[in-house]
Every structure is written in C-alpha cells, then in structure tokens.
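Page 37, continued from 36.
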C-alpha cells in the first residue's frame, strides 16, 4: 500500500524513528488507499530549523529571481493539472470535472499571480526637510498553513504562493483526510526548482496543528477550517504572538429578486449549494426568494435538483460526488432530521444514496427545504453538505436585514436585472465577498475572506501578499 511521507529539505522524510500511521480512505468507496506517516514534535522542530535556514537564503534573492522560480512552479502545476485533479478526487471524493476546472487551476494560478507580484513588489519613499525615509515589506520568516479537507489544492497554493513570493518559507499541514494532493504538489515544486526547505508538508491531526501554533520558530499561521478551530488557533498562537489569518465557516445568503433572469437565478441557487456536494464554506445556503416568484422557483429547483446524478466522481455525467466521510455524512443527515423536526418542508432529497459500484461511499441526494424561517437551526448553522434552505421575502429592506442577521460574514449574493438595486443591495450586505448574478467566482487577482465568525484576513490577490509580510520603515536624517 502507498505510504505518504512527510516532506522537508526538498524530499520525503525517511525517518529513523517509527512514526504513527493513519489510514487514508477514498470517500467514494470507503476503501483504505494509502497510509500516512504522521509527524511528531521532533520532526516539526527539525523542519522549522531547515525551513529557517532555507528562508534566509531565499529572502536574500531579488524579487525577480524568486518570481522566476515561482512562475516555473505555476507552469509545472498547470502541466500537472489533470494528474492533480485525479489525486484530488481520491482525496476528497469530489467530482473530477470540478477539480480539473476549478480547484486545481485556482492553485496554479495563485503561483502565477504571486510570481508577477514577487517581481514587482516595491515600497514607498518619503522626503522631509533634512530627512529621507523608505518603507519596504519584509518577510515574516517561517509561515504555516493548516488546511481543511474540501479544497486541498487551492488551500495549499493560496497559502504557500503568497508566502513564498514574499520571501518566506512555508510548512503545510493538510487536513488529515486529504494528504495526496499536497504530497504531489511538494514534488512538483521541487521539480520546478524551488530551493530545498522552502515548501514542507507535515501530516498530522489537531495535535500537530496545536504544536505548529505553539512553535516559537513559526511566525504566522493561516487556517482554513471551522469556527471553533479558529478560536483554538488564536489561543494556541497567543504565547508566541503569531500573526493569524482565519478562513472559517459561513452561512451565506442569496437574494433572488422577482426581476431576476429566472433561469440564471435557479441555476445560481443550485450551484451555490450543490457544488462540491455542498462542502464549500462560502456556499449560499440561505436562499431568500421574493414572494411573487416563490412557487415557480421552488418547482424549478425541485425539478433540476431531482435530475442531478449522484455517483462516481470520475464520471463526467455526475453532478455530485461523495461527502468526505461517513461521520460527516451522518452530521449532514442529522441536520435533515433537525430541519424536519423544526417544521421545514423537505421538497427533495434528504437521504443517503448507494450508487452501484460505490455502495461503501458517502453519497447523499441534493436536498432542499422550503418553508424555512430565520430562527431554525438549519438556517442558522453551517451544515457543510448538499442542503439548501429556501426562505421568502416581500421587500428589499426586509431581505437585506434578514440576510445580514447572521454571526457569519463570508459570502453573499444577489440575482437581479436592476442595476441600481444590484449596487444598493451589494453595499448593504455584510460579507467579505459579494457576488451579483454569479456566485463563488474568485479570479487570482481577487481577494477572498470573511468577517465576524467567518474569520479575518484575506487570501488570494495582492491582499494575501500583505499578510505574509510586515512593514519596515527606515528613517534617515541627512
Ligand atoms: P476543522 O476545523 O476540523 O479542521 C481544519 C484543520 O485544522 C485541519 O487540518 C485540522 O487538523 C486542524 N485542526 C483541528 N483542530 C486544531 C487545533 N486545535 N489546532 C490546530 N489545528 C487544528 O475543519 P474541517 O472539518 O477540515 O473543514 C470544514 C470547515 O472548514 C468548515 O467549517 C468550513 O466552513 C471551513 N472552511 C472554510 C473555508 C474558508 O475559506 N473560509 C474554506 C473551506 C472550509
């Protein structure tokens, strides 16, 4: 059976010590497909030490030299797109068609984008009577990324690319469920000529995550994960005063106005709920529909959701792949039971599925609840599965107020043909990312991140580069 080994100093770690092993299963079949060697504290120490020494040399290069290597890395990742996408399917159980067109390319593009910024990064200059000053952005040192399991390629690259471009070394701790993509990314970056010790992968669960947070040699943590994990990361990082970026959960609203292009609105609601089987933090799981079109809208949602094919993630005709694990599927099914008990009306789905040939996998039908109200748990809490809650509204003001009535603030969307309304409502919605007549689109030069319980800091775009540097200001008395 394949053994996944930790990666530091530019290669797989051949530990003299016996490391703990963890089974890696394929979510679509439930089969064990690999064993992961888990890093211990000693390996973390060694990796931080090697990373620090590599980082000092890396930071001393010119931005152009760093950028050239980053660009090669982006190119190598693009060439390996299909291979990485296939691994991502084995990691997550998501559709190949999504991995190959969305998640994996968004990671490669982050490297390309960061390469350009590495080459063009500059500071500011100031002059006063008798004095001159300049500011520059300097790297933090060794930075770490702690990942969730839903977007392993994107998470790895969105964190590593800006960190590396700005002269840092990087240690990735992927989610324990999804080791495969990270292992191949490490090899590809080495093949692209990234100097040894700059990109490291350590495998482990929350214990390794906590050790990373407490490690005095690590300057920054970027987490993608749940809200409670985010709070623990802050606590654990406090003693060493690390910088922290938190990409946490969400319960985003989508406002569908009666003037919207009807087909676009229905499809947007479906995509914003069932992409990656609903395992997307920014998904718009609270769909507010203007009362006048509600009956037609529900009928169209039901018809299209029931036509969605659930099954083999590699089959181009599948619309939904597997959920990550049996435990997670059970959590989502428990929410369906809660929704029914709360009085929401199940209009489709709600059950586990056993597609032929994939009976051991964790599949579920796309699920839609109508007649929801704002205080239901299925409307307030993140489910992280293919479960949509539909609510209705009568006025724009009401829709905005109810959309904003959430502890989260990651994404929000609206569908309308009225340009003035689009700007007015977008301005009033409280979230880090707003999408109008689209959903979940994040080009590489576009920031992503939330407010409130969805966390803080931004990934992707030039804003992400800021979070891996600090400002150094030099004042010179002439
Ligand atoms: P999780 O919080 O359970 O785990 C995330 C990562 O944190 C894992 O690598 C885990 O090992 C690690 N971890 C857990 N406890 C830790 C601790 N005490 N100290 C340090 N590290 C620790 O989340 P998950 O189940 O992997 O992912 C689902 C969650 O992630 C959802 O809430 C989802 O909304 C969120 N998410 C957010 C974004 C975003 O960009 N905002 C993207 C994807 C997922």
């Amino acid at each position: 059976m394949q053994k996944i080994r930790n990666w530091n100093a530019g290669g797989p770690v051949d530990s003299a010590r016996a490391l703990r092993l963890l089974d890696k299963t394929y979510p679509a079949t439930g089969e064990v497909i690999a064993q992961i060697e888990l890093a211990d504290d000693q390996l973390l120490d060694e990796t931080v030490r090697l990373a620090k020494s590599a980082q000092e040399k890396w930071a001393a290069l010119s931005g152009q030299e760093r950028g050239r290597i980053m660009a090669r890395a982006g190119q190598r990742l693009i060439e390996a797109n299909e291979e990485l996408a296939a691994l991502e399917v084995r990691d997550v159980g998501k559709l190949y068609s999504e991995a190959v067109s969305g998640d994996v390319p968004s990671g490669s593009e982050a490297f390309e984008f960061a390469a350009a910024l590495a080459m063009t990064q500059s500071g500011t200059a100031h002059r006063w009577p008798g004095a001159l000053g300049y500011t520059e952005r300097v790297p933090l040192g060794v930075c770490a990324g702690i990942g969730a399991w839903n977007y392993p390629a994107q998470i790895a690259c969105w964190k590593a690319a800006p960190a590396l471009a700005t002269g840092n070394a990087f240690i990735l701790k992927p989610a324990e469920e999804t080791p495969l993509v990270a292992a191949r990314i490490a090899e590809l970056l080495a093949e692209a000529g990234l100097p040894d010790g700059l990109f490291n992968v350590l495998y482990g669960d929350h214990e390794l995550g906590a050790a990373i947070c407490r490690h005095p040699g690590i300057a920054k943590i970027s987490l993608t994960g749940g809200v409670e994990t985010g709070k623990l990361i802050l606590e654990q990082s406090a003693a060493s005063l690390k910088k922290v970026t938190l990409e946490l959960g969400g319960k985003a609203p989508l406002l569908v106005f009666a003037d919207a292009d009807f087909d676009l609105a229905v499809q947007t609601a479906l995509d914003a709920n069932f992409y990656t089987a609903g395992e997307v933090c920014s998904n718009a799981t609270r769909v507010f529909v203007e009362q006048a079109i509600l009956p037609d809208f529900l009928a169209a949602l039901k018809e299209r959701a029931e036509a969605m094919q659930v099954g083999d993630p590699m089959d181009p005709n599948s619309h939904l792949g597997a959920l990550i694990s049996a435990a997670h599927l059970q959590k989502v099914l428990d929410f369906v039971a809660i929704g029914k008990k709360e009085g929401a009306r199940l209009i489709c789905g709600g059950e586990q599925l056993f597609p032929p040939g994939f009976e051991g996998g964790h599949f579920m039908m796309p699920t839609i609840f109508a007649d929801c109200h704002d205080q239901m748990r299925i409307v307030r809490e993140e489910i992280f599965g293919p479960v949509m809650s539909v609510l209705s509204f009568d006025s724009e003001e009401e829709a905005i107020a109810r959309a904003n009535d959430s502890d989260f603030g990651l994404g929000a969307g609206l569908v309308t043909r009225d340009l003035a309304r689009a700007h007015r409502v977008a301005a009033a919605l409280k979230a880090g990312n707003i999408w109008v007549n689209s959903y979940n689109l994040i080009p590489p030069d576009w920031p992503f991140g939330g407010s409130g319980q969805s966390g803080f800091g931004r990934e992707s775009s030039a804003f992400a580069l800021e979070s891996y540097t600090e400002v150094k200001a030099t004042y010179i008395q002439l």
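The first strand starts at residue 2 and ends at 4. Flag for discussion at group meeting. The mean pLDDT is 98.
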